Amino acid sequence: MSKKTVVLGASENPSRYSYLAVNKLRAYGHPVVAIGNKKGAVGDVVITTERPDEKDIDTVTLYLNPQLQQQYYDYIFSLKPKRIIFNPGTENDELEELATSNGIQAMEACTLVLLGTGQY
């Protein structure tokens, strides 16, 4: 089953984990909305700097440090995701607590590992 995913902190730099995540999500057939600080593309996925109004979001996966995440709190909750994945280095107790109190699963995990082990 495909899970529509927002990659927050997307980059078209092939050495970034967010770039690898967008590629791997697409390889596994998941629709991706990529949001970064610069416009660009990863394969067939356009990176936007906007905050598109999306529906049916399963997962928001974070590639932003906690200080940069704050500006996206309202946007993340407006998407009504089922879960938020805090990739290594993005752990944020405040956002995790807010997510949990809003009925959203908060996971400290690695999107790449979850995909590779069939746990996504």
Description:
This protein has helices at 17-27, 66-69, 73-78, 93-101, 111-116, and strands at 5-8, 32-35, 40-42, 45-48, 59-62, 83-86, 105-108. By secondary structure, it is of the alpha/beta class. Strands 3-4-2-1-5-6-7 form a 7-stranded mixed sheet. A hairpin with a 2-residue loop joins strand 3 and strand 4.
Outline the fold blueprint.
Elements: E1 5-8, H1 17-27, E2 32-35, E3 40-42, E4 45-48, E5 59-62, H2 66-69, H3 73-78, E6 83-86, H4 93-101, E7 105-108, H5 111-116
Parallel strand pairs: 1-2, 1-5, 2-4, 5-6, 6-7
Antiparallel strand pairs: 3-4
List the main descriptive attributes of the protein structure presented here:
single chain; alpha/beta; 30% helix; 120 residues
Summarize the structure.
The protein has helices spanning 17-27, 66-69, 73-78, 93-101, 111-116, and strands at residues 5-8, 32-35, 40-42, 45-48, 59-62, 83-86, 105-108. The protein is α/β, with parallel strands linked by helices and 120 residues long.
Number of DSSP-assigned strands? 7
Backbone structural class: alpha/beta
| Widest β-sheet, arrangement of strands | 3-4-2-1-5-6-7
Uncertain residue ranges = none
Largest sheet geometry: 7 strands, mixed
Helix content: 25-40%
Shape: globular
Helices and strands, in order, run as: EHEEEEHHEHEH
What is the number of helical segments per DSSP (H or I, 4+ residues)?
5
Could you tell me the mean pLDDT?
Answer: 98
What amount of the residues lies in strands? 15-25%
Through-space gap between termini: 10 Å
Overall radius of gyration = 13 Å
